[in-house]
Amino acid sequence: MISLQNVSKIYSLGEDIVNAVVDINLEIKEKEFIGILGSSGSGKSTLMHIIGLLELPTSGKIILDGKDISKLTDAELSKIRNKTVGFVFQSFNLINRFTVLENVLLPTKYSKERTPQDFTEKAMELLKRFGILERRNFYPNKISGGQQQRVAIARALIMNPKIILADEPTGNLDSKTGDEILDILKNLNKEFGVTVILVTHEHDIAAKTKRQIYIKDGKVVEKYL
Amino acid sequence: MKIQNGYVHLVKTALSDFRRNKVRTILTSLGIMIGVYSVVLLIALGLGLKNYIEGQFNSMGANLIMILPGSGFTGEGGAGFGGQGTVGGVSFDERDLNTLERISEIDYIVPIVMKGASIEGDSDKKFGYVMGINDDAFKLMNVEMEYGTEFTKTDIQAATKVSVIGYTLAEKLYGNPSDALGKTVRVNDQRFKIVGVAKKKGDQQADGALYVPFRTTYASINPDKKFWAIYLGIKSDDILPTVKAKAEEALLKRYKADDFAVTEQSELLNSINQIFGIINMVLIAIGSISLLVGGVGIMNIMYATVTERTKEIGIRRAVGATQNDILQQFLTESLMLSIFGGILGLLFASLSVFAIRTFFPASVNLLAVLVSFIVPSAIGVFFGVFPARRAAKLSPIEAIRYE
Ligand SMILES: Nc1ncnc2c1ncn2[C@@H]1O[C@H](COP(=O)(O)OP(=O)(O)OP(=O)(O)O)[C@@H](O)[C@H]1O
Ligand SMILES: [Mg+2]
């Protein structure tokens, strides 16, 4: 479904050059559950942003469903982010001036199909599934971290994406809440066939995924230390 | 469907944001409000002044052709009665009346003798205008009687010593205008019996005039038997150019082209309209400065808002917003801020106009309403586009990391 070919990302901060991602080749198939594992600063987030088309690589190719995305316009890339990809971040990244329900519905405002009513029903369904339906009119800063992350997952799912990209989704949560979030992601993959890519620096979390990729200094390595 | 859904979302979020930041919203739109307020008010005042003057003109009857000495109206001074607006040229006499009488389309021919003079009543004397005219003048210039009667054709032919007195002059000389009837006034050595008191017209010159049969002035007031002007009245607008041409042709046999002018009211109105056009432009320019300052204020706040919402922009980009979507979001907000200011400005200006209406015929017209929507819209877009573009150009990842 997605293939990365010799993908590199170089940041230049004036004189300094940071090789955040170095010559990565990666093949991700449909319905996979992948863990990307690496220490802090190894380039996991950067790699995830490149897979999610939030950032373009400095060099190399990304082929999505057989199409080279380097030729796509901003509008086309945005449409893929809207329809095909769902992001879940460590720091939740909800919009505080919107309610829970409005946050879940945010991606639908940038969609080109269906009527808003359909989406509201779908959003309610998701919130119900994650046990936060009665919090739908709350603002994000009035609910717990675990609840916020569920809202973020509901938002990631509202457009029925094929891929969920989760960047340390449990990083800000206690282990019990974190496990609940991981179970949700696991279920999404198992029951609904969503491809889940989970970025983490913890071995035991990565162990829950079906395939692990180890990253060190921006490169894919055989074994995680 | 998409566009509608998207726009509803944009407008709703902007509105809820304004509600959350009421004070900031009002302060930001204040500049535009003051700008629109002044522009609308200035337009309303200019319009009122224009209406007022046009009203004065219309009181003189519609289809009036004026034969004036010199090249006619020069753009200053009062039109119609006043001699100040004309330069040089000839004086007319009864020969010209006879010449003009041959033009069959003319309904009224009125000679105008006009002299500023001291007019003496029983105990008092006041400055006023002696106007030597004929009986048709009352119809042509819409002079109606408050008390008494007009003088007649017979009075003209016999050069009777009668007069009709303007309302204000009667008031000044006799206190109560109705007391003027039957009294005798003196101008130079001539005496005139007052047979009528004219209704108040609101025109200083007309209300301060003493109307007398023009031939009666041939004694000491106007020994040369000359007229300052000749007014022609016609029934319909259509023949106005024809009559003008014929009158001109007839008079050219006697005078040089530069010595007289055949003009119509609408020409005078045009010059006045032009002057008001210029005044309006100047007033609008002044208002525009406030609008400009208001626009800069909006731009300033929008830059602050973009910075404040950097993270939100990143989040929106991550869930599928295009650069254009972000641009639209901030443009909508600056546009709404600006239009909000415009509506407030229009509202307050309308209230002010309503308040001054009792003593001045100011009015809010379609132009003012259009200006108060179109101008702020343009300002909102123009000053909003810079911050909005900055927002749109943000890198999604850097934006989302922004704290
Ligand atoms: N916008 C940027 N500009 C410059 N350097 C950057 C930028 N983003 C990331 N980097 C650098 O690239 C490297 C990889 O960063 P990245 O965020 O991908 O690491 P990570 O594996 O996600 O780390 P963590 O586990 O701490 O989140 C780091 O050295 C970082 O400093
Ligand atoms: Mg990271």
TrEMBL record, chain A:
- Specify the domain of life of the species encoding this protein: Bacteria
What are the recorded GO MF terms, alphabetically?
A: ATP binding; ATP hydrolysis activity; transmembrane transporter activity
* GO cellular-component term (any): plasma membrane
Q: Give the PROSITE patterns listed for this entry.
A: ABC_TRANSPORTER_1, ABC_TRANSPORTER_2
Q: InterPro entries given for it?
A: AAA+_ATPase (IPR003593), ABC_transporter-like_ATP-bd (IPR003439), ABC_transporter-like_CS (IPR017871), ABC_transpr_LolD-like (IPR015854), MacB-like_ATP-bd (IPR017911), P-loop_NTPase (IPR027417)
UniProt keyword terms in alphabetical order: ATP-binding, Nucleotide-binding, Transport
Q: What Gene3D superfamilies does UniProt report for this protein, alphabetically? A: P-loop containing nucleotide triphosphate hydrolases
ABC transporter domain residues? 2-225
- Name the UniProt record assigns to this protein: ABC transporter related protein
TrEMBL record, chain B:
Q: Which Pfam families match?
A: FtsX, MacB_PCD
GO CC, one annotated term: plasma membrane
Has keyword rRNA processing? no
User: What is its subcellular localisation?
Assistant: Cell membrane
For this protein, the record's InterPro entries field holds: ABC3_permease_C (IPR003838), MacB_PCD (IPR025857), Macrolide_Exporter_MacB (IPR050250)
Residue intervals of the MacB-like periplasmic core domain: 25-249
Q: Specify the ABC3 transporter permease C-terminal domain's residue ranges.
A: 285-396
> Where are the membrane-spanning stretches?
26-49, 275-303, 335-360, 366-386
Domain of life, per lineage = Bacteria
UniProt keywords, alphabetically: Cell membrane, Membrane, Transmembrane, Transmembrane helix
A molecular function GO annotation: transmembrane transporter activity
Q: Indicate the family of this protein.
A: Belongs to the ABC-4 integral membrane protein family.
> Mind telling me which PANTHER family this protein's record contains?
ABC TRANSPORTER PERMEASE YTRF, MEMBRANE COMPONENT OF TRANSPORTER-RELATED
User: Mind telling me what this protein is named?
Assistant: ABC transporter, permease protein
Q: What is the originating organism of this protein?
A: Candidatus Woesebacteria bacterium GW2011_GWA1_37_8
